[in-house]
Amino acid sequence: MFSLRHGRPDDLPTIYRLERLYIETMEPQQLQKWLSVLERHIKQWVHDLPRTITAEELGQPLGYLFWEREHDTAILASINVDPGYRRRGIATALLIRFEHEAAATGCLDLELGCLPQNPARRLYESLGYIYDREETPYLVLRKKVLVPR
User: Which of 21, 100, 142, 145 has its CA 20 to 30 A from that of 29?
Assistant: First the structure.
């Protein structure tokens, strides 16, 4: 059974590996651009460690989520689960924890972007995220914070 905890510096190799895998799989045309600004990504990952939630089992990271705050909106910057551990409820647990943490900090809205063809879109919509706008090539989905602060 997996557990959730806050991110730590030793999660950075897992974050790098899964972020790169996402780009290679879902947005391969962006790989060279992504690699060219890798230092910027690393700085973001380090900066967002206090808002990173890691799923682990027996000390092994299985996935993570990190988010950023913009005024009263919590923006999901990234969520990723190792392909070998998908469909076990990890992403759902990460999203629910994100919603609770965002609410605890006073956020009123939740926001995330995803490609229209991303299979995770079904999960987001099942948790109440609805289409808000398009920021090509992404769809932006939003949800009001429903958990008590």
Answer: 142
